[in-house]
Every structure is written in C-alpha cells, then in structure tokens.
Design a protein that fits this description.
The protein has 194 residues and is of the alpha+beta class. It contains 4 helices and 9 strands; from the N terminus they run ααβααββββββββ. The strands form 2 sheets. The chain has a 5-stranded antiparallel β-sheet with strand order 1-7-4-9-2, with helices on one face. A hairpin with a 5-residue loop joins strand 5 and strand 6. Helix 2 crosses helix 4. The longest helix is centred in the first third of the chain and has 16 residues. The protein is globular.
Length: 194
C-alpha cells in the first residue's frame, strides 16, 4: 500500500512519528517517544478513563470474538485495544519500516500494590527482536540493561505514562515496576526473514 506523503500525514500521522522515532533509535539505543498523535490501535489516551460503559462493552466483546477465533495477539488485550486497528497498525508499520511487526502481548500490572513488580531481568528469546512498548493505562517504570555497539555495558531507566512508547533494542534485558492496573502493549520488531 503506497500512500503519498500527504495521505500519510492526514491518515496516519502516528505512524510517521513512530517510523521517524525508529529511524533514530533502531539498532542504536533505547529511547522514549512522547507522541503528538494518539495511536488508534491502543485507544485514545484522553478517552480511556472517560469512555461510556456501552462503548467499552462493545470493545471488550469484539476482543472476546478475536480471542475465540484463535488470534494470539490482540485477543488478550482487554479494553483500550482495538483488534482491527492493531492489525492495521502492525501491517502499516511493517510496510513503512520494512520490518516484521507483530503484537506480542498486552499486560496488566495487577490489582494490588506490588503485583506489578517484575524484579527479574528478562530478555527477548535469542535476542533477535526489538521491542516497542506502548503504555495504554497507568504508569510503569522500566529499567533496561545492554551493551552498546562497542561492547560497553549501558543502562537506561524511564517511567512511561499513557500514550508514550519505549523502544528496547534487541539483546537488551528489561524489568518493570508497574502501578496497579497499569497496562501496556508489547510490539515485536524484527527483520522480514525472522
């Protein structure tokens, strides 16, 4: 799907922001994007807490249908995630960046204080995929550790708020400390051949 620049600017400004952000950080270093535009795949951050109950029920129902259909991506998402928009987002970001893009999971930190704490360091299997973490609700503090291009150890820490994105380079380990009910989506980025 080749869109002229004007169409991308009108129809998908959030994709242009993410593609530009990735062009700066991919294979280099972690980074945080404070986007100007909402990503419709993960809800309008201004409306997450303000939505009417009927609209939320319809969205949750749509997610259940996707889960029943065996979709491992957006099916586990819950409210704040639109499966059809997630599919469109991953396909268009893949087209725009030339990367393999897939929604890995949507996680909720928990319902009680301390439940959202993941003190163990985890890394991507085989260290081949990059991660793009999209904060949906609540706040999560992320700690990352890895090596730069010259082999020096580096670390990075940030706190993501709803709507913000974190890029985690392939091979970097991570852990998080989330507020109760904090939700985030994990999008995996890899080479087309992976």
């Amino acid at each position: 799907m080749d869109m002229p620049d004007e169409a991308w600017e009108r129809e998908a400004p959030h994709l242009r922001e993410i593609a530009l952000f990735l062009s700066v950080h991919l294979d280099r270093a972690p980074g945080v994007l404070w986007p100007e535009y909402d990503n419709p795949a993960f809800g309008d951050v201004d409306d997450i807490d303000d939505g009417d109950d009927a609209g939320e029920a319809e969205e949750v129902g749509a997610v259940d249908e996707v889960e029943d259909a065996g979709d491992t991506g957006a099916g586990s998402a819950g409210d704040g995630v639109c499966p059809a928009q997630v599919d469109r987002f991953t396909a268009e970001l893949a087209l725009l960046t030339g990367l393999s893009v897939r929604l890995d999971r949507v996680e909720t930190a928990g319902v009680a204080p301390g439940v959202g704490v993941d003190t163990a360091w985890t890394g991507q299997p085989d260290g081949l995929e990059h991660l793009l973490i999209h904060q949906i609700a609540g706040a999560v503090t992320w700690q990352l550790t890895g090596t730069d291009g010259s082999g020096r150890s580096e670390s990075f820490q940030c706190r993501l708020l709803p709507g913000e994105l974190l890029y985690v380079p392939a091979g970097w380990s991570r852990r998080c400390f989330g507020a109760p009910q904090a939700r985030y989506a994990v999008v995996c980025l890899g080479s087309k051949g992976e």
